[in-house]
Amino acid sequence: MGVRMIKPRLYRGMRDIEPAEMEFQEIVLAKVQELFKKFGFLPLKTPAIEYLDILTGKYGEESEKLFYNLAYGDGHTLALRYDLTVPLARYIAMHTHELPNIFKRYQIQQVWRAERAQPRQGRFREFLQCDVDIIGSNSLVSDAEIIAISIECLEALGFKNYSVKLNHRVLLKGLLNEAGVHQENEMVVCRILDKIDKIGMDKVKAQLEKDLLEPGQIKKLFTFFDSKADNEQKLTNLENMKLNKDAQKGIEDLKTILGHLNSFNISQDKIEFDPALARGLDYYTGSIFETVLLDHPHIGSLTGGGRYDNLIGVFIGRDIPACGTTVGLDRIVTALSEMKRLDKKIPSNKVLVTILDENYASYSIKLASKMRKEGITVDLFPEPASIRYQLSYADKMNIEFVLLIGENEIKNKMIRLKNMKTGEQTDYPEDLIIKEIKKLTDKKENGKIENAKTP
Amino acid sequence: MGVRMIKPRLYRGMRDIEPAEMEFQEIVLAKVQELFKKFGFLPLKTPAIEYLDILTGKYGEESEKLFYNLAYGDGHTLALRYDLTVPLARYIAMHTHELPNIFKRYQIQQVWRAERAQPRQGRFREFLQCDVDIIGSNSLVSDAEIIAISIECLEALGFKNYSVKLNHRVLLKGLLNEAGVHQENEMVVCRILDKIDKIGMDKVKAQLEKDLLEPGQIKKLFTFFDSKADNEQKLTNLENMKLNKDAQKGIEDLKTILGHLNSFNISQDKIEFDPALARGLDYYTGSIFETVLLDHPHIGSLTGGGRYDNLIGVFIGRDIPACGTTVGLDRIVTALSEMKRLDKKIPSNKVLVTILDENYASYSIKLASKMRKEGITVDLFPEPASIRYQLSYADKMNIEFVLLIGENEIKNKMIRLKNMKTGEQTDYPEDLIIKEIKKLTDKKENGKIENAKTP
């Protein structure tokens, strides 16, 4: 054991998730997972550590600076996963022969990015992603189903005032081309456009003007973006401009996706076609989409995804179409927390069994064991201590029911039940106490998301 | 996007957890988690990345060679967590003032060790640990409760033929001292003794003889280990030898723990006091224990833990007592798999809604959405394809119920239900089909662990 004292501390951007938040996260996760299953998705997990060359060349230069490389193996050939999409593509490529032609999977795991951490905005260097992807189909039904599941997710968690921004990489490519952006600059421009929500339109224009585009080009490009009409009108307006083939292909796809979303019973006013939406990652090839909270825009997108038909091909030399989205769990928890919809109190459907004296420890242990066997959640205080000390523990732990077992109780074969909320104390015969506790705790519920009010 | 093709592959010791195994893992995890909660433990998560000096000096030299360091930050000052105990100690040290005096937490997360991977024996370099720990109490009720929860875990998962090996570091220290082992060699000897199960008694003796101990010392040491009596007799035998204070203290603690285990309703024949049990990690200071499957000894210990009263002190300069165990989920799954208790088939309480023609896609999507709203798990085939193609998908996915929706069906307002198991096809009116499917799928259960038979 080390002799020197080590200051206990966390690496910047890392955090512990404490019990109250964990219990809430568990509830959110259960809801999300239930939904994914209901849509027929199958669970998958991939390892945290991947070969570096599996991850490189898919996200874009700026993103790939944020990899955590491992100082192990031959000259740092390993890295922590940056998202769940590239590992999925690697997995698909390794298993094409065994997998069904259509593979719908969900995956809930941490990812790591050496970003500037902004803990207050729910941005950490380690965060939990919940991904759903449909592999193997070109059909735009997939794109619509992925968007539908994003929306169902938010609805299930009680969000009301959100919007799905929808665009298409090929349309955007066409528009950039119309504005005279060189093909080799497309991704650079996309990555700058992706910052509109973060840094605002003016700064984006300034960044585009610096080195990349002429003022005239920027002006032209933004005429495509500026429309205020509804989705259908915006698409028709663009269509009427008789733009290049890429633009036309994108418009057609988006119209089909909007049609399918209608069949998925998604209200059209939740969807906003935004021709300036770019998404930061390189690998998208078709529809792109993200959801934002209209009242909490600073939190950023809660979900985001799109179609990436060429990614798996990098590993097997022939393309397999794919489409998916990420649900950002940490941002969702941040949002629910800001909306005061988190019950931060530790749930109290729990009983504390005390030990008042070493001599009665055995009695308390036996009682706790019996109660647990009956399905009751029992916290057994592990050591003999004063009533005062154990009650203050119950208080801190938000435990409502405490069983006091001391000399008197054992002599009289009675057990004292103290209700911490009311202060009431009642003695029950040994043989009735379990029944009574069962009745009391069954009424209690675990922590939950409070009912959605329109925020 | 990269042009060069990258061979899709996994770094040695890493693995993907595929849907069938994931669904099983989810069931096992749910059982374990439910149990931890019933015992009153609270959930916690800590980050994967810790400062290197937080982890160093706690596990022992051999273990610490297995850290995955990160090539980020100033000269590799970061590493992936090696277990969940040291991060817990770091967490406790950072929050002593807010936490209750007794803190019972569970934690279910991956850990990473650059070990020689033995995938067939369920040994990977990334694996899932489920930890329960009681912080803040010296009372041996904690030690007994931790052992009790290990046993309840195994019982809940259907294991019958297992044994809990129990020992005490201070007793072992006393015995080593009686055999003339120098204090500075104690941990080295412990780490060698820890290999008895892996490499056998003879090789352990050979390793001890090399550099460390005289033949006479080894002989003396192993006279303490060789007893075949029951626990109480073994302890009494040692007691009667009137050994040093450390040995006496250990014996006394073990007797108390066995007494408490009795109160926890743990059958004494599940516990085997094994004075040679050493546990490999440096940080233990009191009781140590692990569970092994008597029929599958090659899998190694399924759970393992002990008391570590000095670990938190490294971070805050005053000791806080603690005791806990790890439940090794991957080994448990390996064991259940070897015992053929895993139903590897993907559960089939799922309905496939087909799309037979582009024109009816909208109808199929609407039906799928309605059914999901009714709580039915629906896999929507994402693209128009031949009946044959979609049925072969259903077959591969082990989906029992398929809805066929084509021109005829829509004309006649009937939907065809095909049962993949019986081959039967029945037409149902649109307005009845959801009811019928609900009836059929409600009967189905999700995958489960088969009932325990004494293996």
Keywords:
elongated; Rossmann fold; disordered C terminus; 16 strands; homodimer; 18 helices; BirA Bifunctional Protein, domain 2; alpha+beta; 2 domains; 455 residues; 5-stranded mixed sheet
Kindly describe this structure.
- 2 copies of one chain form a homodimer.
- With 455 residues, chain A is an alpha+beta fold.
- The first copy, chain A, has 2 domains: 19-338, BirA Bifunctional Protein, domain 2 (2-Layer Sandwich); 351-443, Rossmann fold (3-Layer(aba) Sandwich).
- Chain A has 18 helices and 16 strands.
- Chain A has helices at residues 19-38, 52-55, 61-64, 85-94, 140-156, 169-178, 186-193, 196-199, 201-209, 215-225, 231-240, 245-263, 313-316, 329-338, 361-373, 387-396, 407-412, 430-443, and strands at 42-43, 49-51, 69-70, 78-80, 103-112, 126-135, 162-168, 271-273, 287-293, 303-307, 322-328, 351-353, 378-380, 401-404, 414-419, 425-429.
- Chain A has an 8-stranded mixed β-sheet with strand order 1-5-6-11-10-9-7-8. In chain A, strands 13-12-14-15-16 form a 5-stranded mixed β-sheet, with helices on both faces. In chain A, strands 2-4-3 form a 3-stranded antiparallel β-sheet.
- In chain A, β12, α15 and β13 form a beta-alpha-beta unit.
- In chain A, α5 (140-156) packs across α12 (245-263) and α11 (231-240) packs antiparallel against α12.
- The radius of gyration of chain A is 28 Å and the shape is elongated.
- Chain A starts with 18 loop residues before the first helix and ends in a 12-residue tail after the last helix.
- The relative contact order of chain A is 0.13.
- Mean pLDDT of chain A is 90; it is low at 451-455.
- The interface between A and B is large, with 109 and 109 residues.
